[in-house]
Structure formats: structure tokens, C-alpha cells
Write a structure and sequence with these properties.
Strand content: under 5%
Number of domains: 1
Number of strands: 0
Largest sheet: none
Low-confidence stretches: none
Shape: globular
Mean pLDDT: 81
Distance between the termini: 16 Å
Helix content: 55-70%
């Protein structure tokens, strides 16, 4: 069993280490800010980032907003800290997929930035694919 830490997260190509680091920090910032912004919304305060009215309605059930924003905040902080990167990427991918689907079908105004985020997340998962090999073996 391999230990998951920043030392074990090596990109496929050594020259792509800078790309992986920049994408990791960018995704970490996106998810950390989105998580904190969601807690402002949950507390009844005005969020500091604009939210789609359809997203607010979708997350207005109560528990879903807290669950999603907690996962975003935890995953974003893990990416920023450089600890358990493969785990954070794997845990955040369903959220990224839902964000992409939401903007594709419901609110296409931010589709290009979301597509960039989706591609960055996909690249990071591909770069860390050796960590997931044991999950895919029978």
C-alpha cells in the first residue's frame, strides 16, 4: 500500500510538474472560495461571489448546500496544502462533473470557465492515474 502525500504525486512527465502545480493551486483556490462562499449563503449573508439563481434554488433544500460546500472546502484545502492530492481529486470529481452538467443544461452563461475547470480536473486525474490503479484491479 502506497502512502499518499505530495512526494508520491509525481506528474507523468517531469516538465509538466509546473503545469500540475499551477492547476492544483487553481483548482484548490476555486473549490476553497466556492466552499466559503456557500457558507456565507447558508448563514443568510450576501455571498461575495455571484451565484446563479437556479443553483441557489437547487441547493435550497438545506442539507445539500452544507454537504456540498463542506466537501468543496475540504477538497480545496487539501489541494492547496498539497496533502492527499489523489484523494482530493477523486472526491471532488463528482462535484466538478455536476457543475459542468448544470452549466451545460441549465445555466450556460459560465460554460467556458467551467469547461476549463473540467479539463484541468481531468488532466490532474490523468496525471495521478497510477494512484488509482489498485482501485481498478479486480
Amino acid at each position: 500500500m502506497t502512502r499518499l502525500s505530495i512526494e508520491t504525486f509525481r506528474p507523468v512527465f517531469p516538465r509538466s510538474a509546473l503545469i500540475s502545480t499551477v492547476l492544483r493551486i487553481a483548482l484548490g483556490l476555486i473549490y476553497t472560495l466556492a466552499g466559503v462562499n456557500g457558507f456565507f449563503l447558508y448563514a443568510g449573508l450576501e455571498p461575495f461571489l455571484s451565484k446563479s439563481p437556479a443553483a441557489i434554488e437547487l441547493l435550497g433544500t438545506g442539507y445539500l448546500l452544507v454537504l456540498e460546500k463542506s466537501a468543496e472546502l475540504a477538497g480545496g484545502l487539501l489541494l492547496l496544502s498539497g496533502r492527499f492530492i489523489p484523494l482530493a481529486l477523486l472526491a471532488l470529481f463528482p462535484i466538478t462533473l455536476n457543475i459542468a452538467a448544470f452549466h451545460l443544461f441549465v445555466d450556460p452563461a459560465l460554460l467556458l470557465p467551467v469547461l476549463a475547470m473540467f479539463l484541468a480536473h481531468g488532466y490532474m486525474l490523468w496525471a495521478a492515474r497510477r494512484h488509482y490503479a489498485s482501485l481498478l484491479c479486480p
